[in-house]
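Suppose a colleague, Dr. K., hands you the sequence of a protein chain of 182 amino acids and asks what its three-dimensional shape might be. Before reaching for any lab equipment, you can write down a predicted structure in token form. Begin with the sequence itself:
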Amino acid sequence: MLFRNRSWLPVPFLLVVLLVPAHPTVRHFVAAAALIVIGEWIRLAGVAAAGTVTRRRSRDVQRLVNYGIFGWMRNPLYVGNFLIWMGFVVASGLLWFLPLAIAIFAIEYSLIVAYEEGVLESIFGAEYLAYRTRTPRWVPRPPSTRESGPHDWAEAWKSEISTFMQYVAIVIALYVKQWIVG
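The predicted structure, expressed as tokens, is then:
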């Protein structure tokens, strides 16, 4: 269920970030911007390597992507999402919410990744198990051997346009919240 509905997972974060009063500073916004930019760069690198198939909710996986950023970590899109979500929490100025946001993210995505890893193991077998053994799940580590493969950066940018629009909407909402809160 979480896998199929993972696009709704940011909603609890956004409700807290947008509805709970706070007074963020310029430092909050600078730190948030850094987290969001790094997170989106990681997402873009993942989409460029894996293609837009990463946006689907299907078990129909055609190839195991183990090159590019996927050689550094197995879940770059989720790591990117994590940094982006934490960036918006920081931008809101609700630093007390950060540990709770991290815990919620960890629980939700650990369950989603466990499901996805089972699917990948059932499709790719030993090839996936070898990849899983040599590549960390969350924390990036340079690969011992570099695999190469196609990257479609234009498709990645095009695929992320709706995501960029969401960021703009959230920033506007945060600005309006600060204007109202004063």
